[in-house]
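Lab meeting, item 3. Inverse folding demo.
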């Protein structure tokens, strides 16, 4: 008995002396942060590369090209949207020096069409919002792994089609489709978190931040050496194909999802495989005296609207969604401003990418502290540095720190979502949160156009919008040290954490 308890953690016996092991404890028999869990996190996190490429493509494909006017007093060589916008069509003659470098020169987006170069990234974010809703639902219904593979394959093919776009209309449509298939990294977050315990979730956050930083830096490096925009997009699609070939044979489905959809045999095989890779004892759960404890409410009967009948759950959900939107707005507004933050967009890209690395270190050390207080403090700090971006002398430095703290808060929301909502609806809630959050990304690029009115207006607007959700995040529930909830009742115990006597309600699997 002591040996079994040491292996499985919490367990109980029914009247027939059958050992009933909780799902959380059985999944952890495959390891918390073992070799296989680390491998899963490192491979599944590669999806963030396609997410970065798809949503920030216009940082370099939409660079303002150099041109010269043949009958203008603006000078022999002009650079910037302002000159092209004021010149307009038909008012003067102009020629682009290297028309293949940018979609602006390729599709002649000048004069009254100059705005199209800035809003095209909003099409990608619009497709991303639709994709979050669709792929989040499909990830809960079809499985985490098929969703990852299908999204990765489609996104790679669509990026290739983008590089062959014959017109601006086709380019805009393929950008929308690329955004629609770029949301699989949300499913990857859920997938990686379901393979272990609290330590694994913290490691997942760190890996996603580091990968996001590397992805944006790699994007800048590729763009530096591959200047023509069609060749750049083609190289990015080749990177996507390599990632797909790495993911296809390497990953196994989440045992939590399999258990919750009555596929116990495959779930057991996956956990046993993880145990062997990690060098742990392989448990013989096919023994009739050992039964994995699966509450009845885990069998796919839960619906999201059942949770939303509780006012406290509604408040927590809305706060998550608005917090994500505020962080995304800050994050992408600064990324899309790379051309305006310093004289070299490539230098800005590498410095902004490097800003994510301190975020990973801070998250690693902060994961042992209060989730609520860390998220609250990092959001306020990001807003403060965004306000400081109004000072031109320290704009680049302030932008780097603002992105670093916004990245911490943004990724803490993923950790929060995994620790609050149950397995049967975790992917949908996460996808819905990111769908609402990407509204901030959709308005980030058009917001930059307000620089024509006042050069600090984008920073003032975005930081003011983020202030309200930051204050509301103080009243989020504390989830530090809790297990991942697997059914409806555990979520309610998290959202309503105290009993009438004021004692914390322990999260123990109900005994049927």
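The presenter then showed the designed sequence:
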């Amino acid at each position: 008995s002591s040996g079994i308890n040491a292996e499985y953690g919490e367990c109980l016996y029914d009247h027939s002396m059958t050992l009933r092991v909780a799902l959380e404890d059985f999944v952890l028999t495959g390891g918390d942060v073992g070799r296989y869990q680390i491998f899963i996190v490192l491979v599944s996190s590669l999806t963030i590369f396609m997410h970065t490429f798809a949503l920030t493509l216009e940082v370099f494909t939409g660079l303002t090209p150099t041109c010269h006017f043949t009958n203008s007093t603006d000078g022999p060589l002009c650079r910037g949207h302002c000159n092209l916008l004021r010149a307009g069509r038909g008012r003067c003659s102009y020629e682009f020096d290297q028309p293949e470098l940018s979609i602006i020169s390729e599709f002649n987006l000048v004069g009254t069409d100059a705005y199209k170069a800035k809003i095209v990234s909003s099409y990608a974010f619009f497709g991303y919002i639709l994709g979050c809703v669709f792929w989040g639902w499909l990830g809960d219904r079809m499985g985490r792994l098929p969703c990852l593979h299908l999204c990765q394959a489609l996104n790679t093919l669509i990026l290739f089609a983008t590089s062959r776009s014959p017109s601006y209309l086709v380019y805009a449509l393929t950008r929308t489709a690329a955004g629609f298939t770029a949301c699989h990294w949300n499913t990857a977050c859920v997938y990686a978190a379901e393979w272990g315990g609290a330590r694994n979730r913290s490691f997942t956050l760190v890996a996603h931040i580091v990968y996001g930083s590397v992805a944006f830096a790699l994007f800048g490096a590729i763009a530096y050496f591959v200047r023509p925009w069609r060749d750049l997009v083609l190289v990015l699609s080749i990177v996507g194909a390599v990632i797909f070939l790495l993911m296809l044979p390497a990953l196994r489905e989440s045992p939590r999802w399999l258990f919750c959809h009555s596929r116990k045999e495959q779930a057991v095989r996956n956990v046993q495989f993880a145990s062997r890779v990690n060098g742990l004892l392989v448990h013989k759960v096919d023994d009739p005296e050992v039964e994995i404890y699966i509450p009845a409410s885990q069998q796919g009967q839960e619906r999201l609207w059942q949770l939303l009948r509780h006012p406290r759950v509604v408040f927590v959900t809305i706060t998550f969604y608005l917090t994500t939107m505020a962080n995304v707005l800050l994050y992408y507004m600064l990324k899309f401003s790379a051309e305006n933050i310093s004289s070299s967009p490539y230098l800005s890209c590498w410095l902004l990418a490097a800003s994510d690395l301190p975020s990973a270190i801070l998250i690693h050390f902060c994961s042992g502290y209060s989730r609520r207080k860390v998220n609250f403090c990092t959001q306020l700090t990001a807003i403060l540095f965004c306000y400081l971006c109004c000072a031109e002398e320290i704009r680049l430095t302030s932008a780097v720190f603002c992105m670093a703290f916004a990245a911490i808060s943004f990724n803490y929301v993923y950790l929060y979502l995994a620790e609050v909502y149950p397995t049967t609806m975790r992917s949908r809630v996460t996808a819905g949160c990111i769908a609402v959050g990407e509204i901030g990304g959709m308005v980030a690029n058009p917001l930059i156009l307000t620089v024509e009115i006042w050069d600090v207006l984008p920073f003032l607007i975005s930081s003011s919008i983020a202030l309200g959700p930051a204050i509301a995040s103080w009243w989020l529930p504390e989830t530090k040290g809790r297990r991942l909830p697997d059914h409806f009742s555990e979520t309610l115990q998290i959202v309503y954490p105290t009993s009438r006597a004021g004692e914390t309600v322990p999260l123990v699997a109900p005994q049927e």
